Amino acid sequence: MSDFATPYAYEIFDSLPYFDKDLETLPELRDKVDSEIAKEMGRRDIIHPKVPPEFELFKSQPLLKAELTRVESHKPFPSLDTLRYQLPAPTSMPATDEDWKKALDNAHAQLEHQRTRQTNTTLLQTYGPNAWRIQNYLLESTAKNAEQALEELKEQITSVNRERKNMQTKVGEQITSLEHRYVELISSVLQIEMANVALEAELERLTTREVELSGA
């Protein structure tokens, strides 16, 4: 158990996955490891301190945030309100001056809206194609940079895994050699202890024989 000076404590499991074959030879160990991995994958309430906090999109833009929520919930797009584009006449007959004033104000608003749309259409036809090309160029450049960064990361991962494999293979061979040496030394110690026991028994037998001969 190791504490990284954080609110959480993490267990460190040291192993040489490129060299150790315990997971292949011991199914019960594989089941235990898979169980631990599944348990950790299911712990969404504990986040590693190095993981950045969740980023909230459109925090200061409620309209875009509401639209994002609608898209995420797979709700259909609301139908357009066409009443604002109509020019209804006063419904009451005879109409009052106030009714005609409201209808006239609505007509002025519709006229200004159409004038604004015409201006935007003209601006789009004039500057839209170039702006679109520039945007596409920027997106392509960003995509190429991201792909290049991804390839570099893949190469780094491959290099790290290659170094880990070479290191673990080398260390594993050293560990195996040391284990064999350890077994040989233990075997030698056991043989020496057995020889000592045999010598002590022989010494005791000779001592007993000497006593017997002296008494005779």
Automatic annotation (TrEMBL):
It is found in: Nucleus. One of its GO terms (cellular component) is catalytic step 2 spliceosome. Residues 136-209 form a coiled coil. GO terms for biological process: mRNA processing; RNA splicing. Transmembrane segments: none annotated. The keyword Membrane does not apply. Keywords: Coiled coil, mRNA processing, mRNA splicing, Nucleus, Spliceosome. InterPro entries: SPF27. Belongs to the SPF27 family. This is Pre-mRNA-splicing factor SPF27. The lineage of its organism: Eukaryota, Fungi, Dikarya, Basidiomycota, Agaricomycotina.
